[in-house]
Amino acid sequence: MELEYIKQILDSAYNIRPHEVGCDDCEEEMNEYADYVLEEKQLDKPLNLIKDHLELCRDCSEEFQSLLEALNSATGKK
Ligand SMILES: [Zn+2]
User: Fold this and answer.
1) With a threshold of 0.70, does the pTM exceed it?
2) Which of 15, 24, 42, 45 is the most buried (most CB within 10 A)?
3) Domain ranges of the chain
């Protein structure tokens, strides 16, 4: 019981803001979000959450940057 409680505290410490998407969600949506960024499309709501997550999460934002670079070099854009 107590261990379960401690685990919950640790989990919530890792997910600092519960309303935000997690890293797993972010990774799943990252490709789609990259398309929006590259095409400068209007963001719909779920992707705004991805944007927020990328601003707050260094791991995901680094991953997203390298994804963007890969996509940019693939399409020949700057
Ligand atoms: Zn993340």
Assistant:
1) no
2) 15
3) 21-75
